[in-house]
Amino acid sequence: MHKTVENLILIQNEIKSKIIELNLIDYKPIIVAITKTFKLDHILPLIDYGHVNFGENKVQETLEKWNDIKNKNSQIKLHMVGKLQSNKVKHALKIFDYIHSLDNIKLAEKISYEQKKINKKPKLFIQINIGNELQKSGIAIEKLEEFYRNCIQLNLDIVGTMCLPPENQDSNIYFSKMKNLNDNIKLNELSMGMSSDYLTAIKYSSSHLRIGSKIFGNRI
User: Fold this and answer.
1) CB atoms within 10 A of CB 64
2) What are phi and psi of 216, to 5 degrees?
3) What is each CA distance from 109 to 55, 125, 151, 189, in whole angstroms?
């Protein structure tokens, strides 16, 4: 068995144990395996094992790496987890099923325009700047509801919200805030939790756990 598959199984078992511990009935979070920079020899064993959700952060790299694989396997779902520039939206919509980083109105308008042209609506997460950090993208907490309304008017398929909590701080604080914000605008899905804090994210009903290094090892 390939090391990446062994790692994924260990993570799945950890998650199952946490769900039992917290008595979370009918809760089944999705593991998005973050494959950015990794080559296919690391990824194909996971596909053969049956894993279908994968995350990338660059449009061109994703097109080159995944186009043939997606054509052969329609079950695979690709998630854009990096910052998406407006001028890349046309190409992004060709390959991605989910975009986790909707963070400004210009991008929202561009996605709305391009999805009409190809009759394909990606599922979108609004990225929230949950720690109010100047160096990070994301919608300010106080502007979330207005931004969400604007997205609905643009006929976007908003399924949830996403965050990158401040590093070296207690994620519980920020994941709790995210759950409350998500509930306030009545969205069902939450994209939060990475290799270092996915078990914490489970406590706050994260639907999508973005796990990279814990599956693939450290990036060079």
Assistant:
1) 11
2) -100, -10
3) 23, 15, 8, 22
* pTM check: above 0.85: yes
Helix residue ranges, H only, 73-206:
89-95, 105-118, 144-153, 171-184, 198-202
Note the pLDDT tens digit of each residue in 83-112.
999 999 999 999 999 999 999 999 999 999
Structural domains of the chain sorted by starting position, each given as residue range(s) with its CATH number in brackets:
3-216 (3.20.20.10)
| Geometric angle at alpha carbon 164, from 60 and 203, rounded to 5° | 125
195 and 209 Cβ atoms separated by less than 8 Å: no
| Neighbour tally for 20: CB within 10 Å | 9
How confident is the model over 21-63, as pLDDT tens digits?
999 989 999 999 999 989 899 999 999 999 999 999 999 999 9
CA distance 161 to 180: 11
